[in-house]
Design a protein that fits this description.
The complex is a heterodimer of chains A (71) and B (585). With 71 residues, chain A is of the alpha+beta class. In chain A, 21% of the residues lie in helices and 18% in strands. Chain A has one helix spanning 8-22; strands at 2-5, 36-37, 44-47, 57-59. Chain B has 585 residues and is mainly beta. In chain B, the strands form 11 sheets. In chain B, strands 26, 27, 30, 31, 32, 33, 37, 39, 40, 41, 42 and 46 form a 12-stranded antiparallel sheet that branches. Chain B is elongated and about 125 Å long. Classes of the chains: A alpha+beta (71), B mainly beta (585). Chains A and B meet through β2 of A and loops of B.
Chain lengths: 71, 585
């Protein structure tokens, strides 16, 4: 499951929400997930944490358009 | 005394130099100052000649058959211009009190070869057999030496200095003449006719002590500086290493003093009890010693011997503890030199760290998980995760280079425990990737040399196993569209085989030798691709090899080892080791 948004900051905020909620040790684990950039540069995505919700679009998987083709 | 010939004569000898030799009992090195020996000779009515081709006495030839009072002289037979080849008798006068010692000495050499030579012209000499040396019946202060020619060159010349010398045939003084053949034109050539041990001089001193002086290889006398000292070992040698059969012990010699610099010999020794009965181990004379089966349950020590011309010193290390049976030998112990090595089994007996660090999902705490019997301690792993999931934050590098693979982003951390049970492939633990997991190497490996990358894995989708996750130019990739594939600095390498089958465990290895890149899977080569020379293979990610995680590994990784050197001759051995452990094919 992924959250999708047009503002990267929304996804970065979601990451912080999870980090605070989970209390990662800050040594071996510092973040929940990285922001995935769409090749178009207009959309951003992040893996959803099972325990935390956000007011973002939730999709089951990212479409093939998110992945650069291997030449 | 042959060892003395290893010491070159000391540049320009001075009277305070020590002279190397033995007394007439064969006791090693009489430490007489050179000047003292010269004085003895001089007192004997002769002038000492040291360091010049085997002559020990000189006197002036007396063309008038006269003798200088109080000296030891060589009267000429025939006078100035007499060819050496014509000389059959020499008459010695011994008017000095010390002359008797010289007489005794020369008399002891009857039967030997002697040489009479001009001191400032090596081309003028005669070599003779000394047939007899007897007191002159008419003049008791004279002695007659009867000679028979062996070889000669030139003639006696008035007012020149001559030397008379001999090599004694006695066992203690050594040095006998061999057969002289051919034309001898130079006194130096005669050295070739002296059989070993070469050139020792018997000199009897005024106080009655006999001294044998040994010459160096070049026929010169060996003298060493007056500051010379016998060896002394001031600290004991020590031994380091693991006390198991198959391991190598290393000796660190003790501190040594001595001049000339002593020659060192190390000898490893074995004992049943570590206290008595030490015996030399044949051939074990190096600084290292590989413990063998004969050493099991025994004790080892190393004996250090230091020797120079002035003496010998010996010291023994402390005994080791009892040598234990052969212990674990890992893949990297046999095939060392890896740039990075990640595994869920122990790869080297020298590696003492953990295998991984795991974060459990229940409370996000972490714990390092090590090895039990050289395999991942899955009992501790599953106990720590306690029914929840476990994720790998760190896969430790066992190569010793510190290239640990880490990921501090929870969603990207590969999984190793699911609901309290460790993942496994073919009964061995495995790290799982679901297409979005990866581990990063903080210092990117940039391999411009030959390399060998050995992986043990199982795909459940065609994805990356390693490469660079900040570009698209470097990866190893099982492609569903093409073949098993490598990209090295943008050079696409499609091996002559299909992609790895899904849900099948493989030992899959890619290696470069010069311009060629090859791939082997489960021990079978899949063809050589050329064009890789000079390209730098960049690796900063495991279980991924492309930008972001879009092609991250979907499947299981159990072992990834990267050698930045040519291991092609070790390929079969490496693959056998891997297969013996994982039972892949």
């Amino acid at each position: 499951m992924y959250y999708i948004g047009t503002n990267k900051t929304d996804l970065e905020a979601y990451n912080k929400k999870v980090v605070w909620g989970e209390g990662y040790d800050g040594e071996f684990t510092t973040d929940w997930a990285g922001v995935i950039d769409h090749p178009s540069g207009n959309n951003f995505a992040m893996v959803k944490h099972p325990k935390y919700d956000a007011e973002l679009t939730l999709v089951e998987t990212l479409g093939a358009d998110w992945y650069p083709e291997i030449e | 005394m042959a060892r003395l010939s290893t010491y070159a004569i000391d540049g320009t000898p001075v009277s305070s130099d020590k002279l190397i030799g033995t007394d007439d009992s064969g006791v090693a090195t009489k430490n007489y100052p050179l000047g003292t020996v010269a004085a003895w000779l001089k007192e004997s009515g002769a002038t000492a000649i040291l360091g010049q081709n085997n002559f020990i006495f000189q006197t002036e030839v007396d063309p008038q058959v006269g003798r200088l009072p109080g000296t030891f002289s060589l009267p000429v037979v025939g006078g100035d211009g007499t060819p050496f080849s014509d000389i059959t008798t020499l008459k010695f006068s011994i008017t000095s009190s010390a002359g008797q010692y010289v007489v005794d000495y020369i008399a002891s050499t009857v039967g030997s070869k002697v040489i009479l030579g001009q001191l400032d012209d090596l081309n003028a000499f005669g070599v003779y057999a000394l047939e007899s040396f007897t007191q002159d019946p008419e003049t008791p202060t004279f002695y007659n030496a009867v000679l028979s020619l062996a070889s000669g060159n030139g003639s006696l010349i008035g007012a020149k200095s001559y030397g008379f010398a001999t090599y004694s045939s006695s066992a203690t003084s050594g040095g006998t003449w061999g057969g002289i053949t051919g034309t001898i034109t130079n006194q130096t050539d005669l050295v070739d006719y002296v059989t070993a041990p070469r050139a020792s001089y018997a000199i009897q001193t005024p106080n009655g002590t006999s001294l044998i002086i040994v010459a160096g290889n070049d026929g010169t006398l060996a003298a060493i500086p007056p500051t010379s000292t016998a060896p002394s070992i001031t600290t004991l040698p020590t031994i380091s290493g693991t006390l198991n059969v198959g391991r190598t012990l290393t000796a660190t010699p003790g501190t040594v003093t001595g001049e000339p610099a002593p020659t060192q010999v190390l000898q490893w020794q074995r004992s049943d009890n570590g206290t008595t009965g030490w015996s030399n181990i044949a051939g074990a004379t190096g600084t290292t010693y590989l413990l063998g089966s004969l050493d099991e349950d025994k004790y080892i020590r190393v004996q250090q011997t230091e020797e120079n011309v002035l003496g010998t010193a010996t010291a023994n290390s402390a005994s080791t503890g009892q040598i234990q049976p052969a212990a674990f030998v890992g893949l990297l112990d046999t095939y060392s030199g890896a740039a990075a090595a990640y595994s869920l089994r122990k790869l080297s007996f020298t590696y003492s760290g953990a295998a991984i660090v795991v974060r459990r999902s229940s409370d996000n705490t972490t714990q390092a998980i090590g090895f039990v019997n050289n395999e991942l301690d899955t009992t501790s792993l599953e106990s720590f995760c306690s029914g929840t999931d476990g994720f790998v934050t760190t896969w430790y590098d066992q190569s010793g280079n510190g290239n640990d693979a880490v990921n501090a982003t929870a969603a990207e951390q590969p999984q190793i425990v699911s609901s309290g049970t460790a993942y496994s492939v073919n009964s061995k633990p495995a790290i799982s990737g679901n297409g979005s997991k990866q581990l990063g190497i903080s210092t990117e490996l940039n391999i411009s040399t030959d390399f060998f990358i050995a992986t043990t894995l199982q795909y459940d989708a065609h994805t990356m196993v390693l490469g660079s996750n900040i570009d698209t130019a470097n990866f190893l990739y099982s492609s569903s569209l093409t073949q098993y594939r490598a990209r090295i600095d943008n050079l696409n390498v499609f091996f002559n085989a299909t992609a790895l089958a899904l849900n099948t465990q493989y030992n899959s290895n890619v290696f470069r030798v010069g311009n060629d890149v090859d791939h082997s899977r489960n021990g079978t080569l899949n063809g050589v691709i050329s064009g890789a020379v000079g390209r730098v293979f960049k690796i900063n990610a495991l279980m991924n090899g492309y930008t972001a995680t879009s092609y991250a590994m979907s499947g299981y990784a159990q072992e990834i080892i990267i050698w930045d050197s040519n291991q092609s001759t070790n390929r079969t051995g490496i693959e056998t080791n891997i297969n013996d452990f994982y039972s892949i094919y």
